[in-house]
Structures are given as C-alpha cells and as structure tokens.
TrEMBL record:
<dbReference type="Pfam" id="PF00551">
    <property type="entry name" value="Formyl_trans_N"/>
</dbReference>
<dbReference type="GO" id="GO:0004644">
    <property type="term" value="F:phosphoribosylglycinamide formyltransferase activity"/>
</dbReference>
<dbReference type="InterPro" id="IPR004607">
    <property type="entry name" value="GART"/>
</dbReference>
<feature type="binding site">
    <location>
        <begin position="15"/>
        <end position="17"/>
    </location>
    <ligand>
        <name>N(1)-(5-phospho-beta-D-ribosyl)glycinamide</name>
    </ligand>
</feature>
<comment type="similarity">
    <text>Belongs to the GART family.</text>
</comment>
<feature type="domain" description="Formyl transferase N-terminal">
    <location>
        <begin position="5"/>
        <end position="185"/>
    </location>
</feature>
<feature type="binding site">
    <location>
        <position position="68"/>
    </location>
    <ligand>
        <name>(6R)-10-formyltetrahydrofolate</name>
    </ligand>
</feature>
<feature type="binding site">
    <location>
        <position position="110"/>
    </location>
    <ligand>
        <name>(6R)-10-formyltetrahydrofolate</name>
    </ligand>
</feature>
<comment type="pathway">
    <text>Purine metabolism; IMP biosynthesis via de novo pathway; N(2)-formyl-N(1)-(5-phospho-D-ribosyl)glycinamide from N(1)-(5-phospho-D-ribosyl)glycinamide (10-formyl THF route): step 1/1.</text>
</comment>
<keyword id="KW-0808">Transferase</keyword>
<dbReference type="GO" id="GO:0006189">
    <property type="term" value="P:'de novo' IMP biosynthetic process"/>
</dbReference>
<dbReference type="InterPro" id="IPR036477">
    <property type="entry name" value="Formyl_transf_N_sf"/>
</dbReference>
<dbReference type="InterPro" id="IPR002376">
    <property type="entry name" value="Formyl_transf_N"/>
</dbReference>
<dbReference type="GO" id="GO:0005829">
    <property type="term" value="C:cytosol"/>
</dbReference>
<keyword id="KW-0658">Purine biosynthesis</keyword>
<protein>
    <recommendedName>
        <fullName>Phosphoribosylglycinamide formyltransferase</fullName>
        <ecNumber>2.1.2.2</ecNumber>
    </recommendedName>
</protein>
<dbReference type="InterPro" id="IPR001555">
    <property type="entry name" value="GART_AS"/>
</dbReference>
Amino acid sequence: MSGHKKVAILISGGGSNMMTLVNSMTGDHPARPCLVLSNNADAGGLKKAAEAGVATAVVDHRPFKGDRQAFEAELVKPILDSGADIVCLAGFMRVLTSGFVSRFQGQMLNIHPSLLPKYTGLHTHARALEAGDAEHGCSVHEVTAVLDDGPLLGQARLPVLTGDTPDTLAARVLEQEHILYPAVLHRYAADDRTPVLLG
Ligand code: GRF
C-alpha cells in the first residue's frame, strides 16, 4: 500500500456514491479506501462496503442528543485510527461543526446535489424545479465551516426536462454524481485541484 493516499468515506444511507468511490480506487489510482463510517447502524452502505473488503465503523449520533461536539469527539476517533489522508462525505446527513471541519481543512470533500452556490441544504431538486431552472446538476467541493460552501472541485450539469419531477431529476443527477465524484477524487488524490467540469 505504500504511496497510496488513504480515503475515509462518511455515509448515512444507501451509499451508492460511496461504492462508486470504493470501486474506483483500484489499479494505478493514487488512493485506496481505508474506512467507511456511518452515523446510522442501519445504513445499507455499511454492508456493501464490508462485502467489498473495506473496514467499517458506526458512531450513532442519537445518544448525544444534539450535542454535536460530543458526537464529533467520537466520530473523529475511527477516522484518525484509520490514518485517513482524505475524508469524503458521501450522503452524510449530519451538519459538522467548524471545529471538526477545521481539523480536516484541505482534506475533506463533499458531494451536493445542486449547481452550487445555488440550493445549499435540502430539497435541491424541488427547488430547482420551482425556480424553473433550465439546468441542474451536482457539485463536489472542499468542505469548509459554512454548509455546502468551500472551493468547487467539480460540477456536472444536465438539462431539466419537461415533465421532470423531483424524483426523476434526482435519479438523473445521481447518475452524474456517480461519474463526477470518482473523477474529482482521482484528481484530488493526485494533488490536482483543477475543477472537473462535466456536461
Ligand atoms: C445523494 O443524492 C447525494 O446527493 C445526497 O444524498 C444522496 C446519497 O445517496 N447528498 P447515496 O447514499 O450515495 O446512495
């Protein structure tokens, strides 16, 4: 494994983005997955990661009852133990405090289902439709203390079609997420910060 960057991936759900990242890190890719970590023991992605031979861990946020700092004090442990050089958020549905984020500044990426800076936060597909946007898509960015902010590392654009619903749009955006995130991670792990622009 010498020479490979180590990547920890944080998930909350099905982990389809996580699996595209895991599957991309083979051959001459400069990185390898070292950990898949979830705040939710029921996240379907945990089983998929384990089947792919990746170490998994769970830190449930619920016992911390909204104390984000106490939750993060536990969340950070398996990440540090894994020796991760890069942390990828992939459908990780907890807001992280500036203290946690600053610890991984310049090492942490997130994928968000909108053309940032448009539509930070939730319900991005419905909001794009309500606004009558002709175009929608997804973004990968470095994580900073501001939610869904930080330097853009890539975007994939797609046309909004007549008759699109939030679900049809989400499905097409997710297909693009699965192309964009591995492409960005590959460059990032090779210390190339040139944005990946698709579509
Ligand atoms: C994706 O739609 C992503 O944009 C959003 O959460 C979803 C994660 O899906 N933030 P998956 O867990 O990667 O399948």
